[in-house]
Design goal:
Elements lengths: L2 H10 L4 H12 L9 E5 L3 H8 L4 E7 L2 E8 L8 E8 L2 H13 L5 E3 L1 H8 L4 H29 L2 E6 L17 E7 L1 E7 L3 H7 L5 H9 L13 H14 L4 E6 L2 E5 L5 E8 L2 E7 L5 E6 L12 E3 L11 E2 L6 H23 L1
Parallel strand pairs: 1-4, 2-5, 6-8
Antiparallel strand pairs: 2-3, 3-4, 7-8, 9-10, 10-11, 11-12, 12-13, 13-14, 14-15
Helix pairs in contact: 1-2
Length: about 350
């Protein structure tokens, strides 16, 4: 998600500069650091700069290392510790004059600002304390989402995350909530997006094609997956077979009803049972058919992130040991953890044969 795309959508919706900056704050927390008291956003054209200058807390020209920056500055907010600066930059004096003329025609006269004045505007002296307070509040708000992301980053194809901050309130209606809703966008790797909805709007969202489309419709944004169609069980089986062959070096031996049997060159078998993303299992078996480990979605264990869970060792003495698997019920997405189960099984079998 690029911040300029957010600005573009807001302008399309005729949101003014301050409302657009509010939308940027929803996404912008993902880009903050303790070392930078400013969130700089280089806009794409003069029209966008002009739009953001309407409603800015301060507009000015800032010169650094011979580069002229035309800045629309929004000061730190109660729930956002850094200033946001929307800017165009140029080293060409002719461009400076040209941009200045456009701005003056729209009632904006920009004065140059020095380092001391810039420092005062962004209030960088107090930024470390503001950031620390904000970080603590954000950590409390996103703790469960961070845990989910870390688990999925470890076990699945997910490698990135975005948190849409609504300060502990439902993103749709503003009611206080501690619930977290997520969706994952897959394209080679996976991007998990987290946000907060109250129980009413979370239930409504579950009836829609995608969570992002539901939120977009309520907030007046662009619907990104309007033609989304749920993958059928047969299509999911085909995709699973392909992932077993290409990602896990398996030979698919049999596909019967809802079950796929595949085998590694070592003789270790992977049994995939798929009914739906809410009803699936992956079993790793020794060549003689002994169950060694399993992932499944049955809701019969108390795990922090469930019901999907992993039995890392199905030997009698360790059968009751379970942990959150963080899996999706999609072999292509879950291949990282399945691969680990296979390699653990092969290592154990190799050791027992020596």
């Amino acid at each position: 998600m690029k911040l300029n795309d957010v600005i573009k959508d807001c302008i399309t919706l005729k949101l003014d500069g301050r409302a657009t900056d509010g939308a940027i704050q929803v996404f912008g927390g993902n880009f903050l650091s303790e070392q930078k008291p400013v969130l700089p956003i280089q806009v794409r054209d003069r029209e966008t700069l002009l739009w953001m200058m309407q409603g800015a807390d301060d507009v000015h020209i800032y010169v650094a290392s011979g580069v002229f920056h035309f800045n629309a500055l929004y000061k730190p907010a109660d729930r956002f510790p850094a200033a946001r600066i929307y800017y165009l930059k140029t080293e060409n004096l002719l461009d400076v004059g040209s941009v200045g003329v456009v701005l003056e025609r729209n009632g904006l006269t920009l004065k140059p600002i020095d380092d001391a004045g810039f420092s005062k505007l962004i209030d960088d002296r107090d930024y470390p304390q503001r950031f620390s307070t904000w970080r603590q509040e954000r950590d409390s708000e996103t703790r469960s989402f961070e845990g989910l992301f870390n688990g999925r980053r470890k076990n699945t194809a997910v490698d990135r995350a975005i948190w849409l901050s609504s300060n502990g309130k439902c993103l749709v209606c503003g009611a206080e909530t501690n619930r977290v809703s997520t969706t994952t966008v897959q394209g080679g790797s996976g991007l998990i997006i987290g946000l907060q909805l109250c129980s009413t709007h979370e239930a409504e969202a579950q009836e829609q094609s995608t969570l992002l489309n539901y939120v977009a419709k309520h907030l007046g944004g662009m619907v990104m997956f309007d033609n989304f169609q749920q993958v059928s069980a047969s299509e999911a089986q085909e995709l699973a077979c392909e992932a077993l062959k290409t990602e896990l070096d398996c030979t698919v031996e049999k596909v019967q009803d809802q079950t796929i049997t595949a085998r590694r060159p070592s003789g270790v078998a992977v049994i995939v049972r798929y009914v739906s993303p809410m009803n699936y299992a992956y079993n790793v078996q020794a060549p003689d058919g002994t169950n060694l480990s399993r992932i499944d979605s049955a809701n019969h264990h108390k795990v922090p992130y469930g019901p999907d869970h992993l039995h890392p060792d199905l030997r009698k003495s360790k059968r009751k040991i379970v942990e959150s698997s963080f899996t999706y019920g999609n072999v292509g997405m879950d291949v990282k953890l399945i691969r680990k189960m296979i390699l653990d099984a092969e290592t154990e079998l190799m050791g027992s044969s020596e």
